[in-house]
């Protein structure tokens, strides 16, 4: 065993140098688990610093904890932290913890020897794999080890002792506050300026956005300020800087200081308390529909959020929410903070984390030339060994999707029975499709799933098809589900996504019975899948918390021997007619319209047609004609497709979703019952012309 004073030089020489440079550094301790724990506990004793955080499931490490959710880690600061890799390499937790390290601090990681990571039984691996499809090999860990072996950081190995130490900057670290000061000025200007000019602040971690909120709030002593965030812990920096600027004392449990008050998002929107200024921190962690609702009630509002990595959905949040602000608030402003202020520029730890987890993967859009498009399949092993290709895939997926997380990298590399298809031109990826192969379960387990006794991880589509059809045999066969599909922004509307789906279908036809996709339903996405030959077989009753969309499942048969999808489509459409009256009576109008376009037509009986024609010649009331219109519409649902927008809106809301006249007047902003009656009768006249054209011969 090595001399048990391995940390003397670290503490006496290296830590002062890191502190002088205002940098943070990665310290890797590798070896047998018990040995690593001994070293970590000894180092904690020698550091003697009260601000230390230890993430571990083991009680062998001093004051350890293992938070279930990433947001329980965010928003805090520690001088040093320890991540116990023996508890499992979970990228979300790993990245979040690294973001809490202060300048001059260490991010200490405990792992087996790097050569052993290829075969190490990582306890986190099963969380990224499907039931009955598990394997011990981890391409994520293999890539992790390879990158660590080629990087310069502090490394103490049980086998080899201290490795060659990286050179530490000999220059005093400098913090550039110019960007933050500008951000503070913009916050103050928004608070004091005209209404309905929201400010959007975007920053990587450590750039001082939360501090800027606190410092700006401290100058607004004549304003009532509410600050909102999913987790109060994320606001410690804001309150700390507010207190320092005002000369107040602050305890971490304080949720109110002077005129600055914390409020949770749900309480804010339920109670709608008055304030002069609303600050929303870590906005990317709050569902966009809730952010939009805040905008409707608070005329002076500042949104701030971390962009790279730790919250997971920063880049997609920017794409979706900023686009909304630009469309609806022409005088909105945005500020991006790039210079770090919690540590100096070129911070070693930040560079290591971005490299290890591909947080800085940035897709570079291209302009297509006349070269042929190549459709092919990539393997996780290929991606793990080809960093440039991996970063193209990660960058494109992050750019194209709202709900991304750091864990997506590990899912990409370690999910079993996953197939990765891409479209390339001259080696550049312009589209990617991730597909999970599901099913293949035993007959006994399949029966337990259908009866509701079991819900094995990772077989979302197979389980849904089996339960909808009450047919356990479905789970014993294989199906393919599109997990994600992304096309380079410049190549949208060029049929590349459709062509990639067709290629995938051709490759899967020999092994799978069904092909499908699950996604947050909106009209444009549903139209894409329907045009590709997929049928809607389920629409979830619950709305997604982040997007407020209902999960849709579309599918198609890859064999001629199964009528499953055809039957499920028929069942869904029959149920949907009644569900629109209840569960889905708030469903988006355009989505309802798109569902109707694919619904089957039936002949209305002659008595029904005769009665309708007669009733239309009278001075009918809405409530008297509603039932007849409802039955007739479901005989020929496509009769709405060529109507004007007002007709579609009134028919969907009043007839198919059974809104009351009072609700329709309020939501559709129609003044008075007479105006509604007049608009409705005109809509009926317009629709009836299309109905007569659409009637089956």
Structure characterization notes:
A hairpin with a 3-residue loop joins β6 (154-157) and β7. The strands form 3 sheets. A 7-stranded mixed β-sheet has the order 3-2-4-5-1-6-7, sandwiched between helices. A 7-stranded mixed β-sheet has the order 10-11-9-12-13-8-14, with helices on both faces. The protein has a 7-stranded mixed β-sheet with strand order 15-16-17-18-19-21-20. It is built from 26 helices and 21 strands. By secondary structure, it is of the alpha/beta class.
- Poorly predicted segments: 309-314
Write down how many β-strands occur, each being a DSSP E stretch of 2 or more residues.
21
* Helicity, as a percent range: 40-55%
Label the structural class.
alpha/beta
Number of alpha- plus pi-helical segments: 26
Strand order of the largest sheet: 3-2-4-5-1-6-7
pLDDT averaged over residues: 90
Rough shape?
A: globular
Key terms for this structure?
26 helices, 18% strand, single chain, alpha/beta, seven-stranded mixed beta sheet, 697 residues
